[in-house]
Amino acid sequence: MVDIVSRIQQLLDKEKPFALARVIKTWRSSPRPVGSAMLITDDGEMHGSVSGGCIETAVVKGALEVIMSGQSKVMDFGVADEEAWEVGLSCGGSVSVLITPFMEDDAYVKFLRFLDKNKPFFILTRLNGPSHSNPIYLDRMEDELAGNPVLVNNINNAFESGLTGAIVESRAGDEYFAHFFRAKPRLILIGSAHITSELLVLASMHDFETIVIDPRDTFAKKTSRQQEPNQLIVKWPQEVLGEMDLDQNTFAVILSHDPKIDDEALKIILPSEMKYVGALGSKKTHAKRVERLKTYGFSEDEIARIDAPIGIDIGSQTPKEIAISVMGALIKAKNA
């Protein structure tokens, strides 16, 4: 759903009616996972996808009805359904899509604010009863859920299991769709160079939060970039990395080509829980790096965490190609 955020903001600014269609349940083979979303305006404009094309026409028709009526609806598609065959859902599975109408500005503004914080939150939408058309945007178990411990427990269990969304029940048997949004993966780039600039573009495309750290003022501030990082820190790595939460949602790429910078970063990164660390350089350069790290007391297992030479082997030659190779390795690690 985050891929349609910019369009939501534009429509809010224009006060243009729209509806959101979200996949809330799948069975067996399905083109798109739970949580996939599509935005539909009152004149049929689409952004995003709920199936990759096979049910979009029917969903747009349903969304236009929702915009007109102001009432949410759930559309079910499966291979046994005449409409599903008509629109091409022949993958052998089934999918349920929740369509909700444009709500008051405050609700979507809250959604955009939560995304900007890059903290976990969820949208809770009742699927039965009179209030099912009013999603609740929560960044924690707030007062809205007080007195409903069964629902809270079911939401927590679904979130902890790693699901992107789930249909959960309250003690009274009411059904809700809990749509989870997790913090973006965080990419720390040590060193500002040409490859850094190319990586920032790809990282933004793939929804990474980016931090560039480089103590060299000229490199940090005067390198031309098509995409700016979320944070640019002109300090030595050892001055800032120790204050960061280097958890399983954090990734690092070492790019400065200067051992005085790179090694200091690795001294802090290697003992951390960070999910991925890669370092630029040839096999010869990395062999020298390994010897230095051994003198600092790092074990072979710790040093083996470093992906070097960095990236997926695609025979990269140019900075753009190297950046693609590195991004491939980052995505592979993220999805592992």
Estimated share of beta-strand residues: 15-25%
- Find the structural class using helix and strand composition: alpha/beta
* Widest β-sheet, arrangement of strands: 12-11-10-13-14-15
For the record, the count of structural domains works out to 3
CATH topology of the largest domain: Rossmann fold
CATH class of the largest domain: Alpha Beta
End-to-end separation: 21 Å
Quantity of strands, as a count: 15
Query: Any guess at the CATH architecture of the largest domain?
Result: 3-Layer(aba) Sandwich
Order of helices and strands: HEEEHEHEHEEHEEEHEHEHEHEHHEH
CATH superfamily of the largest domain: NAD(P)-binding Rossmann-like Domain
State Rg.
23 Å
User: How many DSSP helices?
Assistant: 12
If you average the pLDDT, what whole number results? 86
Give a quick account of the main beta sheet: strands, pairing sense, barrel closure: 6 strands, parallel
Which of globular, elongated, flat, extended, rod-shaped describes the shape?
elongated
Percent of residues in helices comes to: 25-40%
Low-confidence stretches: none
Protein name: XdhC/CoxI family protein
Pfam family, one: XdhC_C
